Amino acid sequence: MSENKMALQYFVKYFRKYWKGILVVIFLSLISTLSQVIGPLFLGNAVRDLTNAATKIGQGKLDLNYFYSALAYMAGSYALGIIAMFIAWMVMSKFNADATNDMRENLFSKFQRMLIRYFDTHQDGKLLSLFNSDLDNIFNAMNNAMFEVISQSALFIGSIIMMFMVNAKMAIFTVATTPLIIVISIIIMKKARKYLDAQQDKISDLNGYVNEQINGQKVIITNGLQKESVQNFRHYNNDVRNAMFKGQFYSGMLFPLLQGLSLLNLAIVIGGGAWLIVTNQVSHAVGLGLIVAFVEYSQTYFQPLTQLTSIYSMIQLALTGGRRLANVEKQGEEDTVANGKVLTGIKDGVKLENVHFSYVPGKEILHGVNIEVDKGKSVAVVGPTGSGKTTIMNLVNRFYDVNKGKVTFDGVDVRDITLESLRNNVGIVLQDSVLFTGTIEDNIKYGKPDASHDQVIAAAKEANIHDFISSLPDGYNTQVSEENSVFSTGQKQLISIARTILTDPEFLILDEATSNVDTVTEAKIQKAMDAVIAGRTSFVIAHRLKTILNSDKIVVLKDGNVIEQGNHDELIKKRGFYYSLYTNQMAFE
Ligand SMILES: Nc1ncnc2c1ncn2[C@@H]1O[C@H](COP(=O)(O)OP(=O)(O)OP(=O)(O)O)[C@@H](O)[C@H]1O
């Protein structure tokens, strides 16, 4: 499908339901256009009547009644046009705002249903570009261009019809330059489109880069990379400037070009009118009236062309935005397994059976992994960085699906369990705990909004964070926000653990974050983890072996293979890979 067609289909989808409003706008635009088209006719008539009256002054008769009534018709028709345009503008603004609102809402809801793979492979800043840059372009174009497109097209067609009705010869003089205009416009528009498309892509790249650099500001400062960061920014910024300049250069060329051609056209029209008078094809008065009317027609004929070209870049940017949004709508969604088995708890346990997995085709990460965790037991997954620990979590929670083998809950493949019940039964404490804007209480209640205040306190106590929260001036009502974060990494993780305790999941995945916290917080996290794990079926992804010594089973992963399994004592006795991992780590404690 061509890209413009894809964008147009996207717009049809969102504007279809506002068809009544669109019809009203079209109707009012036609009235407004009609008045503009008829206006010159009355003006021409006024001049003709005035000329006729003037020639009769010498005969002592001065009858200006026809002239005055022609003037009144002209004023009336222009006034009607302005009122119609104003109402159309209001109606259109309303449904444009509603339609872009729908687009924004659907885009956001789509994000909630999309595969994690999409977010893992697209920069946050690029995704944000869809919300600001692309949707803004669409709104601006719709608000400013839609009315123009309707009214100017009608004006264009109306002018042609009127001109031919008034005088065919003069009409031919007026439209004579049209083929030339069309050819020039097509050539320039093609060029402009290429760069306007590129402009949006480059803005998206720039947003991606800025977002990434802002998130990594501390790393940049600590490594003294500010200059390099600005240098790279210049590179992205220059790309935007170049694409913007070329896009605007080509689309901007059309306007002055058409202005120039419209002047040429005026000369042709006046010359044509004079020729009609000189060759006695029409009387002086009629000829002058025709010249005045067609000078005006020449303007109304050219106005749509110049107006449409002046908003061309706006329209093209909206089409690019529509295409980019339509592309997101096309992306695959999570399989909700609507008719699958509803998981209502765990009776036997969770298993990974001969699991093979690759994020990218041809680059396998897990090579036939078997892990088994019985109900109520805790299994720790350890291994060097990049060995595939987080990947296992991604598969159990169905962020990704296995390529071969299966992950089962009580023997049922996760792909046969309704996604909702799976996620309801699986709780995850991520390494990077996220807090949302709101109070601390809101954050703890995130997974269970109907929890009582007492339940929140009990969960916070279990997670070892109650004392800290109580020590804050506003306690549980303390506002949390991106700009106002009073929490350390460890405290954030404790709040995240409290959140998980409150949801009371059957199966727990804990990606421990004890590696970058102080020893006091580490001890607190350890206690909180022990509390949340107690009696619960769980996977613990461990970075520090000290924290998992009491696990029922330790699975050692290396390069995507399980190379050892057993409890701590068994693995130490074995004097294998775990033994060397453990002794190495203890040497640094
Ligand atoms: N979204 C992704 N796309 C492509 N490759 C990925 C993706 N996520 C992880 N990988 C690759 O998969 C491999 C395993 O990564 P994983 O995050 O599971 O390791 P890990 O054992 O959890 O590491 P760490 O201890 O550092 O957290 C790595 O080689 C990594 O580069």
Outline of this structure?
The chain is of the alpha/beta class and 589 residues long. The protein contains 20 helices and twelve strands.
% residues in beta strands:
5-15%
Q: What fraction, in percent, of the residue positions are helical?
A: 55-70%
Shape: elongated
Instruction: Find the structural class using helix and strand composition.
Output: alpha/beta
Bound molecules: adenosine-5'-triphosphate
Overall mean pLDDT stands at 86
Please report the total strand number as a whole number.
12
The CATH homologous superfamily of the largest domain corresponds to ABC transporter type 1, transmembrane domain
Report low-confidence residues grouped into runs of 5 or more.
Answer: none
Termini separation: 61 Å
Largest sheet: 6 strands, mixed
Kindly provide the radius of gyration, computed on alpha-carbon positions and rounded to a whole number of angstroms.
Answer: 36 Å
Number of domains: 2
The second-level CATH architecture of the largest domain is Up-down Bundle
Instruction: Going across the biggest sheet, name each strand in turn.
Output: 6-9-10-3-11-12
Per the CATH scheme, the topology name of the largest domain is: ABC transporter transmembrane region fold
Membrane topology: Multi-pass membrane protein
Protein name: ABC transporter, ATP-binding/permease protein
Pfam family, one: ABC_tran
Transmembrane segments: 21-46, 66-91, 145-164, 170-189, 254-278
Structure commentary:
Residues 350-584 form the ABC transporter domain. Pfam families: ABC_membrane, ABC_tran. Keywords: ATP-binding, Membrane, Nucleotide-binding, Transmembrane, Transmembrane helix, Transport. The radius of gyration is 36 Å and the shape is elongated. Helices cover 65% and strands 11% of the residues. 37% of the residues are buried. The mean pLDDT is 86. The protein is an alpha/beta fold and 589 residues long. The chain folds into 2 domains: 3-330, Up-down Bundle (ABC transporter transmembrane region fold), CATH 1.20.1560.10; 349-588, P-loop containing nucleotide triphosphate hydrolases (Rossmann fold, 3-Layer(aba) Sandwich). It has 20 helices and 12 strands. It has helices spanning 3-15, 19-55, 65-113, 116-121, 124-166, 168-175, 178-215, 217-222, 226-278, 284-310, 312-330, 389-396, 419-425, 440-444, 453-462, 466-471, 489-503, 519-533, 568-574, 577-588, and strands spanning 349-360, 363-374, 378-382, 404-409, 412-413, 426-429, 438-439, 479-480, 507-511, 537-541, 553-558, 561-566. The strands form 3 sheets. It has a 6-stranded mixed β-sheet, with helices on both faces. Strands 2-1-4-5 form a 4-stranded antiparallel β-sheet. A two-stranded antiparallel ribbon has the order 7-8. Adenosine-5'-triphosphate (ATP) is lined by residues 120, 359-360, 365, 383, 385-391.
